[in-house]
Amino acid sequence: MKLWDGRFKEKTDPIMERFSASIHFDWVLFRQDIEGSKAHADMLERIGILTSEERDAIKNGLDRIREEIEKGELTFTSSLEDIHMHIESRLIEMIGDVGRKLHTGRSRNDQISLDMRLFLKERVGEIENNLLNLLRIIIDRAQRDKEAIMPGYTHMQRAQVVTFGHYIMAYYFMLKRDLERLKDMKKNLDVLPLGSGAIAGSTIPLDREYVRERLGFTDISANSMDTVSDRDFCLDAVYSVAMIMLHLSRLSEDLIIFSTQEFSFVSLPDSLCTGSSLMPHKKNPDSLELVRGKAARVIGDLFSLFTLLKGLPMTYNRDMQEDKEPLFHALDTVMESLVIMGLCIKEMDINTQKMQEAVFSSYMPAVEMTEYLVLKGIPFRDAHAIVGKMVRECENRGIPLYKMDIDDMRLFSSVFDEDVYGYIEPDNILRNRKTIGAASFDEVERLIEREKAYLNSF
Fold it and tell me: DSSP for 240-302?
């Protein structure tokens, strides 16, 4: 017998039972459902709906049900649809009619919102911890390789000389924004929905303030209709996670490219790579390719939720049952991806010789040579054209800019002097950059120290 079938004279078709059941994925909310139910029971006793003995019987029964689920002793069935009905049915089976009082003043509509908010508060905290661990690993890596020079790229073409420390800190700041986004997201999440009922609240004087404090929420939802129809907090969570995955995917792409034989800037740890069933020499970056691939699925989870919610009328609709699988998948995926990326950054080897060779065999100092001319009084656009012609000449002769004789340089501009060679030397470039946030030795060191202090604040 279903807990809601008093209005019906016909049984639910077995096909409909299977089609509508969510127990195969929402069972993971059992701890949150039980915790919320215990708080609800305490409140019902507080306002006189339950006696203290009835409350204790309910709470003891709920604790026993939690143990049964944790031990795999409670059998789930599609006929009971979801985790809420399983727990309530088992409670009634255990303690009798007292169990039927638990749902007083409560609907599955506000109950599931509570469970998901409690679940997300816990899981987002775990994601924050994994993200903080990755940020610390990146800081350590940047410290270790803060003076390893390498090409920086735009359009996948060598652009200007940077350091590996500056490069990897670019991803640090992406992921730091992700951490701050998670912190902001938790503000909208930290709202108690319980007490909104199915749509309009209750004539029973439910003590929502007591439940808020009991469950550790900072605020109480203000509109019962909005409360039961709201899944913005799920969208916020999946969006935040999708942004993390986007950044991890970009980093994965870089490291996959840098680990190719053509670049050989980095060597990924063997423990995160696989071989080929045919080619004995292969070392494939499967872990990073999977992070890149899984990012696509998490972005899909976000659009799945957007599409699910975009046309729903007020208030709760059964469509909203479909919010959990994309949410759970996105959260699980980012947790594992953050760990994988942390291991990769921590254990990979940097080939400083290859990166240095790439710097010295390029025309990247052309930017600084242009600035050299500007500081000598030549307008920037004129300086840009002069150095462009010099690069073309060096390409024709097969030499880098620093190998051009000073007399040949003066054919392009009379202001060139011997000091130009020191000005365009890569290490000097990294010493001489003046701007805040630039790829310079001093700025990289300053920001590493600043961000260490930031991370130590957690």
Answer: HHHHHHHHHHHHHHHHHHHTSTTT-SEE--GGG-B--SS-TT--B-HHHHHHHHHHHHHHHHH
